[in-house]
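Hey, I was hoping to borrow your eyes for a little while. There's a protein on my desk that I can't quite get my head around. The fold is given in discrete form, as structure tokens running alongside the sequence. I'd be grateful if you could look everything over and explain what you see. Here's the protein in full, and shout if anything looks odd to you:
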Amino acid sequence: MDRYCKVEKIAELQGHTQGIYAMALDGEGFLYTAGGDGMLVRWQPLESDTGLAVARFPGPVYSLLFPDGVRWVAGAATGELFMQESEGQVRRLLAHQNGLFALMAAGEGKWYSGGGDGRCMEWNDAGNASALNHFSNQSLRVLQMLPGNAVAAGYSDAQIRIWNSDPIETPLVLNGHSGSVFALAFHPQLQRLYSAGRDARLLVWDAAAGFALIDEVKAHLLHIHHMDLSPDGKLLATASMDKTIRIWDSHSLQLLKVIGAANAFAHRSSVNRLLWLENRVLASAGDDRMLRVFRIELLSD
């Protein structure tokens, strides 16, 4: 597979004492990580190998978001939402039961959250919340914004549900997975929704054809925890419990590279989170407590 792309290690950073579950960029390009140790750490991984602890939570953090690019919000294993306010103050708000797994910016000063109770909540900058919907009694694990203010959500009942701006309407239900849906990504140029989860399969849905299922591959050996599209839309990266990151051609779903046991700089346990920092620069984090940054050289570029 080296004939398709090459991988170079840029950074290998440690600042957590337990697994990392969440990553996010702020409006200035700083990278933040959070996880099982309850620490929120800020990084400049392309410039420094030292992280700065900026907050400590009473327990594990599952999700992280900068809705306005400046202030962070964090979703906890308890289902609480922690919200940064001015002058270093932090608000602690009860949001969900059994974990807050998903946070997604929705524009116009609002964001959505999803949790272990299956509910989707809408929040504003003041920290006020309202219930959008409750389509399942099983966990809502991931949220993805779609064109036209539509939202896709993946659940532990193996279904993907899509609803438009009216949160009361009956959602479109996509069936294709045999276990929890942990990851979603949308390609605006190709009009494709990618989904993955516990069954280790990568599915592709055509938004222009009513979200018909058009492709699927057995992508990993174990659960797929996360995926992310490169900013230019050419590459799709997937992260798995099988300790590997896999790089795919987003159009053809051709597997271009496996970053795993054969690479000395790969993760040594479950890979939980991915984030493209640039078109060919990928950050990853996992249960080995490490933040790793790779440069992906696509030989056909």
Remarks:
- The chain has one domain: 5-298.
- Residues 29 and 44 are 8 Å apart (CA to CA).
- The two ends are 16 Å apart (CA to CA).
- The chain has a mean pLDDT of 95.
